[in-house]
């Protein structure tokens, strides 16, 4: 879609810490990603003095369980001097590999959310949504799992906590290409936790993308994208024959 090759993805990280920074700029498709937290944060926003968004940029790399753990571990090392944080969250957007696949998915991509919280009651989140000129658009959950950070990840446990969520959501691509914010409300406590600012797709894609369909995407196409881009979430049951 508009030059995005199969496996293109946007990775962003949001960490409850000391400042609030703007989300990643719209980069060239397929550009190498910067490491989590590798850019300095912008000055703190008056309405969110305890929030920090780290920019990672575009990547065609995988977003496996181990990759997300590495990002969390690296951010924990950077944040340890602050004495710990109550939660961290990372997102990774996987987009269709062709116009035909985009059509079958009803104009959606798949957003991976990985969150670690000190308080397990915060997970799973109450909702994940986009705030934009269209109002609030809730993202439909596909599947996910709750787990725990293992004892071997001492830095994560010490700085953040043990409760972990890995989940997938349908992301309307037209919203990913227009101004807005990607936000999560945790089940308890924190509301309005900004994961990143939009747009995250190249600016030229926005006007050409029709609004995502309200209907469910083709299941076979959805499962094919998940199996290709996020295989650990692949469904053990094959989709029904058309």
Keywords:
242 residues, globular, 5 helices, alpha+beta, 6-stranded antiparallel beta sheet, disordered N terminus, single chain
Mean pLDDT: 77
Number of strands: 10
Radius of gyration: 17 Å
Distance between the first and last residues' Cα: 25 Å
Helicity range: 10-25%
Task: Give me the secondary-structure category.
Answer: alpha+beta
Main pleated-sheet profile: 6 strands, antiparallel
The ordered string of helix (H) and strand (E) elements is: EEHEHEEEEHEHEEH
Which blocks of ≥5 consecutive residues have pLDDT under 50? 1-11, 15-49
- What count of helical segments does DSSP give? 5
Number of domains: 1
Question: Could you please describe the fold and organization of this structure?
Answer:
With 242 residues, the protein is α+β, with helices and mostly antiparallel strands.
Topology:
Layout: E1 9-16, E2 51-59, H1 65-79, E3 87-94, H2 99-104, E4 108-117, E5 127-132, E6 135-138, E7 141-148, H3 154-159, E8 163-172, H4 173-176, E9 180-185, E10 193-198, H5 219-229
Antiparallel strand pairs: 1-2, 1-3, 3-4, 4-8, 5-6, 5-9, 7-8, 9-10
In short:
This protein has one domain (9-233). The chain is 17% helix and 31% strand. The chain has helices spanning 65-79, 99-104, 154-159, 173-176, 219-229; strands at residues 9-16, 51-59, 87-94, 108-117, 127-132, 135-138, 141-148, 163-172, 180-185, 193-198.
């Amino acid at each position: 879609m508009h030059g995005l090759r199969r496996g293109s993805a946007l990775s962003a990280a949001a960490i409850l810490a000391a400042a609030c920074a703007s989300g990643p700029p719209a980069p060239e498709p397929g550009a190498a990603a910067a490491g989590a937290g590798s850019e300095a944060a912008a000055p703190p926003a008056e309405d969110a003095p305890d929030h920090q968004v780290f920019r990672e940029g575009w990547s065609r790399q995988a977003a496996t369980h181990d990759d997300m753990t590495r990002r969390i571990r690296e951010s924990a090392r950077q944040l340890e001097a602050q004495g710990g944080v109550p939660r961290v969250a990372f997102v990774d957007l996987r987009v269709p590999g062709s116009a035909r696949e985009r059509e079958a998915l009803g104009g959606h991509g798949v957003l991976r959310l990985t969150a670690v919280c000190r308080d397990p009651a915060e997970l799973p989140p109450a909702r994940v949504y986009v705030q934009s000129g269209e109002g609030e658009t809730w993202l439909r959950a596909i599947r996910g799992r709750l787990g725990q950070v293992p004892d071997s990840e001492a830095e994560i446990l010490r700085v953040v906590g043990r409760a972990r969520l890995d989940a997938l959501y349908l992301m309307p691509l037209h919203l990913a290409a227009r101004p807005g914010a990607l936000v999560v409300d945790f089940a308890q406590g924190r509301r309005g936790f900004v994961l990143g600012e939009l747009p995250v797709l190249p600016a030229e894609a926005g006007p050409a993308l029709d609004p995502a369909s309200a209907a469910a995407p083709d299941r076979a196409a959805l499962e094919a994208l998940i199996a290709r881009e996020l295989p650990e979430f692949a469904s053990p049951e094959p989709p029904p024959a058309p």
